[in-house]
């Protein structure tokens, strides 16, 4: 039991960490906020001046903003759909007893340890390249026209690459959840006359609900900020076909040297991310209680 | 109708033979208890009947029909699991309805049977709760309710009371017995608790290492155990088993005498001993008596309150007609 004294010292000892974290968060945040109200272009140093909400007006009326917003949503939802559905299927598969189970499980986890830039490069050059890529070779072997993934379907291709990276994570979490399911429940439902598909629907899926929630929450946070894959493969193009919010802010501040505009975009992204977080917590965070 | 016949049923996991070929008939309407120490294969045997494990060899017939390779759902049996195996995300009502929903029964029929089962099991007030909000005994009743509504040919119970506290266990034991009387359906019940076996069974099957040691009514097993194992396993407290010269006097390798068949006297008797631990239960008193020349202390029952305590000298006389004699193989020597 904590006495008054020990609580005091606990607070005292935890305070450096709390202060460090606060500083870590607050300083960049307030600087971003400050910059977003300035006319601040790196090509014109020393000419910063207060411009009010001009940066926000320009950013929010930019046609690229709506394209980026839509792309961000499509990217998040697309990857979530692929990883949750694929993760469940893979978890079901890996839960079966088969020869070499341990090795296969490690292999399945492996993509998660590959850096985003590296995996994007591998996908771009070795798989999706319309001349040398594996898919092109496969298409040619079948007598088909090779498909130029990154220019014809840039967003879908990036969704594919990011899904490949996150599938292991979803699989891992869902597999452990599946293994924690009481075998007697499955046997009981088998005795109750439920065929496999109904056992899956009525017993396994409800059991997985909580883990699926965790997967969706964690992945959404990371998927909102996908960047490296886009930079390496399509550079947001063609046009803005594969630009998401993160990439748009990068373009604004570092390719157009408009720090003010970029900061305004950053603040907008923070607000949007928080809206998403609130909705997610409200809608599915309930699953985490009880 | 629920007559279950096992014909040379054998089960092996890899090279390990868990159940050597075994024959057993369970008559329709019988309450059969499989009892034995843990790891004796009694649960495996039940799972073989249920169809949750595949039979390695032999044949299982339910109502004269070969059920050896039928999937569990097609056998018309219902099972109550040790952990109850309720579906945690479904209400009690939905749990009970689940097997009927799978069988495609009409909504009205489902409702009717749920109401009937709930009434029989005192669950009416809890139908809309989740299993997590119920006590152990209530969960147990839900599991039984889920089994009843299927109107199975036979019920299978896999140590259903082992997760309950002692008082609740006695209550549930009665309820299950009453249920059996009312439904008159075959019930197969697995337990390691010989008291449960004795109180509930029409027929007890004593198992050891996959072998059937003896099959019989509770009193048959109590009065004429076929071998030393059954003698030691059935009855509470355990039968006293005595080996050595004292047994040879009766022309046996081992003799057995139950605590309740020893006469206690402070004056004279056949065996003289000193009281060790005594257990006072009010109605009975059990003494652990150390007798010179006997390897283990004997347990003795004295009715009511007896004013003997630790260190007192006591004389014991075995009731000759209740003395069990066993030969070198441990088999009963007929009187």
UniProtKB/TrEMBL annotation, chain A:
Sequence intervals crossing the membrane: 12-37, 68-94, 106-123, 155-178, 208-228, 259-281
InterPro entries: MetI-like, MetI-like_sf
The keyword GTP-binding is annotated on this UniProt entry: no
A GO BP entry: transmembrane transport
Presence of keyword Transmembrane: yes
Keywords on record: Cell membrane, Membrane, Transmembrane, Transmembrane helix, Transport
SUPFAM superfamilies, A to Z: MetI-like
Location of the ABC transmembrane type-1 domain: 69-280
Coiled coil: none
Compartments where located: Cell membrane
Record's GO cellular component terms: plasma membrane
Cleaved signal peptide residues: none
Pfam families per the UniProt record, alphabetical: BPD_transp_1 (PF00528)
Membrane topology: Multi-pass membrane protein
Family assignment from sequence similarity: Belongs to the binding-protein-dependent transport system permease family.
Protein name: Sorbitol ABC transporter membrane protein/mannitol ABC transporter membrane protein
Species of origin: Celeribacter halophilus
Automatic annotation (TrEMBL), chain B:
Name of the protein in question: Sorbitol ABC transporter ATP-binding protein /mannitol ABC transporter ATP-binding protein
Family the entry assigns: Belongs to the ABC transporter superfamily.
Gene3D superfamilies named in the record: 2.40.50.100, Nucleic acid-binding proteins, P-loop containing nucleotide triphosphate hydrolases
Record-level Gene Ontology MF annotations: ABC-type maltose transporter activity; ATP binding; ATP hydrolysis activity
Keywords: ATP-binding, Nucleotide-binding, Transport
UniProt entry tagged with the keyword Lipid metabolism: no
Top-rank taxon: Bacteria
GO CC field: ATP-binding cassette (ABC) transporter complex, substrate-binding subunit-containing; maltose transport complex
A Pfam family reported for this protein in Swiss-Prot or TrEMBL: ABC_tran
Family matches, as InterPro entries: AAA+_ATPase, ABC_transporter-like_ATP-bd, ABC_transporter-like_CS, ABC_transpr_MalK-like, ABC_transpr_MalK/UgpC-like, Mo/tungstate-bd_C_term_dom, NA-bd_OB-fold, P-loop_NTPase
Limits of the ABC transporter domain: 4-234
